[in-house]
Amino acid sequence: MNADASAADTGADSRPEGGGTGRLVLLTTSHRVAPGLLSWPAWQVLRAADRVLCADPDHPQLPYLRDAGIEVEVAAPTARELVDFCVAQARTAVVLTSAVGESALTDGLARLAGSGRETMPDLELLPGSYDLPGARLLDLVQVMDQIRAACPWSSIRTHGDLAKYGLEEAYELVEAIEAGDREELREELGDVLLQVVFHARIAQDDTEDPFSIDDVAGTIVEKLIHRHPHVFGEEAAETPEDVKAHWLRTKAEEKQRQSLTEGVPLGQPGLALAAKLASRVRTAELEVPLPTGEGVGYELLAMAVRAERDGVDPEAALRAAARAYRDAVIAVEGGAG
Q1: Which of 25, 107, 208, 291 has the fewest beta carbons closer than 10 A?
Q2: What span, in angstroms and rounded, lies between the C-alpha atoms of 188 and 12?
């Protein structure tokens, strides 16, 4: 046995009095949670620790820990140094990890623990704060801020510049839904979400009437709460039809429209436009005769109204038929080849 192996074996056999080997805690925090908002277990271990260390002098938690009377050493000891400190007298050390993690430290600890010849302290990964659902949206807002400030193309875009991309992304989302491709669906939802965040970031720069993504979110939250009195209020809704009735009533109260055609975007595809108008007419229980005239347009209008009445989305139905037509074209091309 060589000298190094003998020393390692001797160290492995020697334990502090009482049999304890100490405790090494890697404390993680989320940058998406306000600094200083830590879990109770995190505060407990910080206050009880013999040593608290952090390699990042600009870590956002440091001022709050110091205000709480916790002394933090700005240092980046090696795995060997921390293990020796904890094991020597069964002490507790807490390492406040940085945003990028402590890969060198964790790799070193893994090597020491994996050797099987080291006395190791109890190793613990302790989350000091957790992301709430939707926390990654804060990352998106931050990234969009950086892009708007630093990207030569993005920094000069206007709402008008992006309008066509909004349509394209919406159509690609519909295509992913109809194809049943879950991975594509997730990606296309992200692309649609980007359009929302991008437009909100552009609006924030407006000198006359600025608003931010928080204003956008606040507006839709208020709308959802108001239009769901059966969820957030005292009204009852037992069926989907009841819910729709609540929605239409509250929407009518909000909009105070003079005509049921108000709010129907005329720029949408023709079949979808006809179906939307037919839906408004049917819901309002109006008797509106279909206009008649020469040409295929009036025939398509009648078909779209009939489809909506029968619960069929004419735009989706035509897309499905068009895809079948595309497949037929490809089949003929293959046969010709």
Answers
A1: 208
A2: 55
The answer to whether 314 touches 301, Cβ cutoff 8 Å, is no
Taking the whole predicted model, whether its pTM rises above 0.70 is answered as no
Neighbours of 276 (CB within 10 A): 19
Q: Over the chain (337 residues), what is each successive 10-residue block's mean pLDDT?
A: 39 42 93 90 96 94 95 94 94 88 87 92 93 90 96 96 93 92 96 97 96 96 90 87 80 77 87 91 89 92 94 92 93 82
